[in-house]
Design brief:
Helix content is 26%, strand content 33%. With 600 residues, the chain is an alpha+beta fold. The strands form 6 sheets. It has an 8-stranded antiparallel β-sheet with strand order 11-10-16-7-8-15-12-13.
Length: 600
């Protein structure tokens, strides 16, 4: 157990792709955390999906031993955090377990939207921040200019920023010395009753639930009986250890230290993130304030393609939600798709990642319904309901008014793409709040309805700005708008999975676009298939999918025309009967593709 004066706990924060994971690799390598043979790129990104996409999804922790210039050994606990806006909840948890942060900024890109969001979270938690300018080995690097930008845009002193190249290892030793001299040591005492913060938990099929903890006061030891204050449950610690990043068992963890405990916990729901862990016999007087629970902003239905796999899906969703506490779910039933789950996500990338993880890790084919946000519906009798699924919307005659969620979006974009970005925001019913400049980059703040952002706003923004725009948002408020429910009918049957809520002024346009898309996506059948968009009983758009035609008159060789008419009439009746009893199969990609805006 190390004395707290030789412990430093820090997080790495940055915008996506500014080199956090590569910097973490270099720090681990410099402290001989792994041998040359075990070392690989992005060593802390352990999931296949993280490595393929080149993004961090789960925050990971590692303990490094560093011998300083004064020959003292320091224990450095590093938490690598995600950079994408959808995983901001992971970032907030990681920052709560640290006293300081390394702020990594790309010397070619400068300050981006997510840099701001993450650094403000760290400032709120009174972190000591060390600015680091990365990628100085690139020809386009402008480290001095980026330092000025950090001071202008964020407002923190960057005069002692450290210039590094995480790729080549240049400047890495300066980071270690800065961590030791500039970050505060953790507070905490050995003599106080045990008090630890539950930072994260995940499910391991061999060990049960593994809990990541940060000890505040007292000690955690093997065999100790502990109590989770939030769930009021008690356990005995079977194993206790640290990540180097390999798992290494230790006898005890003291104040300021980060590590894991395994205590025969069967379900992750018993380990609430942000809970206080204390000694069962001698509990601490006051508990830690914990984290505020994450609020899902996007909801959608997940259904198995094969309805017999519903129980497997239930099991896989429960296991996954143990690993990802920001993911919420409840069962639902759909007329078109059978039994499935209504799930809440922090954003569209989060939804995509969860869907992909279920398909990969548990081998279940899924159908995903249209993503939707939470609407507040105020009824004529004075009550109101939260609506997660457009298919459950009450009868319009009972509704007084509907409120939808609005967000405050911050977009940083080079000057030459500003016009296209402003047009995109205006097209999505946005209201401009402010427009300022930092060098040759514009910072635009817009109020936007979340409903218009969840589908493909981020993709469109990246495409019109050649990938240079960066985007961050937070929930703002609810506003009353003229909203209506639009249902899609395929072959005169309502497909509830495609029901959406739209602004009344845009309903006709959206209806026409969706019908057109579905006409391309739904395969032809033996009979004519009408695709309609309706608001209440009024059909606002229609497309018809032409049937396959068989030439029933080819075997005729002359004679009276009535013979030909008779055969065509018979075919017509057959097609009509087929349409009454025929099932229309809607392919999986139609459910999401139909909702994407076609800007052309």
């Amino acid at each position: 157990m190390t004395d707290t004066k030789n412990i430093r706990n820090f997080s790495i924060i940055a915008h996506i792709d500014h080199g956090k994971s590569t910097l973490a690799d270099r720090l681990i390598q410099s402290c001989d955390g792994l041998t040359e043979r075990e070392m690989k790129e992005q060593v802390l990104d352990t999931m296949d999906i993280e490595r393929e996409r080149g993004i961090t999804i789960k925050a990971q922790t590692v303990r490094l031993e560093y011998k300083a210039k004064n020959n003292e050994i320091y224990q450095l606990n590093l938490i690598d955090t995600p950079g994408h806006v959808d995983f901001a909840y992971e970032v907030s948890r990681s920052l709560s377990a640290c006293e300081g942060s390394i702020l990594v900024v790309d010397s070619t890109q400068g300050v981006e939207a997510q840099t701001l969001a993450n650094v403000y979270q760290a400032i709120e938690l009174n972190h000591e921040i060390i600015p680091i300018i990365n990628k100085i080995d690139l020809p386009a690097a402008e480290p001095e200019k980026v330092c000025a930008q950090i001071e202008d845009v964020i407002g923190i002193d960057a005069s002692d920023a450290i210039f590094v190249s995480a790729k080549t290892g240049e400047g890495i030793d300066d980071i270690f010395e800065a961590l030791i001299s500039r970050l505060p040591q953790p507070k905490g005492s050995n003599d106080e009753p045990t008090k630890a913060l539950l930072v994260d938990s995940w499910y391991d099929s061999y060990l049960g639930v593994v809990v990541l903890v940060r000890v505040i006061d007292g000690t955690l030891t093997k065999g100790q009986k502990i109590k989770m204050v939030g769930t009021n449950s008690t356990y005995e610690i079977d194993d206790i250890g640290i990540f180097t990043p390999k798992k290494v068992s230790v006898n005890k963890l003291g104040p300021g230290e980060l590590g894991y405990i395994i205590a025969g916990i069967k379900t992750v729901s018993d380990t609430q993130v942000g809970d206080t862990i204390t000694d069962d016999r001698k509990p601490c007087k006051d508990t830690l304030k914990g984290f505020k629970p994450s609020q899902p902003s996007v909801f959608c239905g997940l259904f198995p393609v094969d309805s017999g796999e519903f129980e497997d899906l239930r099991e896989s969703i429960e296991k996954l939600s143990l690993n990802d506490s920001s993911f919420q779910h409840e069962t639902e039933n759909s007329a078109a798709l059978g039994f499935g789950f209504r799930c809440g996500f922090l954003g569209l990338l989060h939804l995509e990642i969860v869907r992909e993880r279920i398909e990969r890790e548990f081998d279940i084919d899924l159908i995903t319904t249209a993503p939707s946000v939470i609407y507040k519906i105020y009824l004529n009798d004075g009550t109101f309901i939260d609506l997660h699924n457009p298919a459950d919307m009450p009868d319009p005659s009972l509704i007084n008014y509907i409120e939808e969620p609005w967000i405050k979006a911050t977009i940083l974009v080079p000057d030459e793409y500003l016009g296209a970005v402003l047009k995109l925001c205006e097209d999505r019913r946005g209201n401009q709040v402010e427009l300022t400049y930092a060098g040759n980059r514009a910072m635009v703040v817009y109020d936007l309805p979340l409903n218009e952002v969840v589908f493909d706003f981020y993709d469109r923004l990246k495409s019109i700005s050649s990938g240079y725009a960066s985007f961050d948002w937070q929930m703002d408020s609810y506003k009353a708008e003229k909203l209506v429910k639009m249902t899609i009918l395929v072959n005169s049957e309502i497909v509830d999975a495609l029901s959406i809520i739209v602004h009344s002024e845009r309903a006709d346009m959206r209806g026409r676009a969706m019908c057109k898309k579905l006409k391309e996506l739904i395969p032809r059948h033996q009979f004519k298939v009408p695709v309609q968009a309706a608001i209440g009983a009024r059909v606002v758009a229609r497309e018809t999918i032409a049937p396959y035609r068989k030439d029933v008159t080819e075997k005729l060789y002359g004679g009276d025309v009535t013979r030909k008419k008779k055969l065509l009439e018979k075919q017509k009746k057959g097609k009509k009967r087929m349409r009454e009893f025929g099932n229309v199969n809607i392919p999986q990609e139609a459910f999401i593709s139909a909702l994407k805006f076609d800007e052309n």
